[in-house]
Amino acid sequence: MSTEGLRIGIVGAGIAGLTVANTLIASGADCHVFEQAGQFADVGAGIQVAPNAARVLHRLGLGPSLDAVAVRPRRIEMRRWDDGAVLRSTDLEPCAELFGAPYYTVHRADLHRVLVEHLPCGVVHLGRRCVGAVEGPDGVALRHSDGSTTTVDVGIGADGIRSVLRRLVADDEPTFSGQHIVRGLVPGTAVPELAADPRVQLWLGPGQHLVCYPVRGGRLISFGATIPASTAGDESWTAPGSASELRARYWDWHPVVDRILAAAEEVTRWALHDREVLHRWSTARTTLVGDAAHPMLPFLAQGANQAIEDAMVLARGLRGIATGEVAPALLGYEELRRARTEEVHRTSRRNTQMLHLPDGPEQRERDAVLGRTADVRTQAWLFGHDVTEGWTAEASIAG
Ligand SMILES: Cc1cc2nc3c(=O)[nH]c(=O)nc-3n(C[C@H](O)[C@H](O)[C@H](O)COP(=O)(O)OP(=O)(O)OC[C@H]3O[C@@H](n4cnc5c(N)ncnc54)[C@H](O)[C@@H]3O)c2cc1C
To answer: pTM to 2 decimals?
Structure first.
């Protein structure tokens, strides 16, 4: 059975919207994606794709494309900010065997391109900002900024943390975390050891931390460095930041951190927000995926991974149903995703404090725990989560 007959409109062509489109197309749906941007740009730095999401992408047939553009890091290392002491080193090599898919680091634009290129022409409509949605008994009217309207049987909000479609279900605002993150890309030659022996490194220090890893075959190193901030600001992949201010904030950190920041020319600055969790995020004909549904802090590197999980579950729920069955299908999707996304959201928030402890007894206790939890099996709750577990071959979307 397929989703033939249902007209589905997705608002937003980020990782969530594009993955949903891919999963829906794989189940034969008539779906269209409306993106506000006039073109896709090479924006953003790196992103970590964990096995829980890589498995979904593999099932969609994207494994070879992903392998062509992504790096498979061998380890995740947590290190001390000053002397570089390794607090935890997690071997990622067993991921494929344990969790059915590897761990990847990839340039965000490359992942985006993989998702776009896998879609048939004519599915993504650029320059179509959604300014509102009106839901009636027979459909959802998506209103675009050019004055046009598209009426669909199901509306899917994949329009990120400032989602327009979220307003149908909640009257809330993003919560500022008190952290900014400054991001950039530096040549792999700045830290050749990271390019040669690919790793995700987290450098933990008092009040702030830096994450770095290779992308594009190690030709580039992506980094993100947090800084505490009292005022919010934009969430934007393109808002400029100050490399010299960043260097000043990290001036006494380890020489590897120093080398990365010394090589950074252009950086962007992002004010980190999430929102309180929603217990419902669907109406009778509209639902949300990814950051529109459950924006979370990036301190577990799972926002996009959760969006990818959402996509698979939603497409399966909509598969083969008639228009009259949309409401229970959306409710079913939400129920399958609620506990999982809440747990990841909660852990991401908790990590804000854990990653930024000042040196002292609590930090030493944390480091001892980190040392005891290096085995990747301790992450089975996160990386081993298989959204397709228990699905029969008939019910599965692809693969
Ligand atoms: C610094 C940082 C590092 C991160 N690292 C990781 C990581 O390593 N791994 C991970 O899994 N997650 C990570 N995340 C989280 C991840 O980036 C997000 O969870 C993910 O991008 C959400 O995807 P999305 O498609 O839901 O939303 P978005 O990426 O925000 O995409 C929304 C899309 O909708 C479009 N849009 C918005 N409004 C409208 C409208 N009204 N009409 C039409 N189109 C619209 C936007 O232009 C955009 O294309 C990180 C986040 C940050 C800030």
So the answer is: 0.96
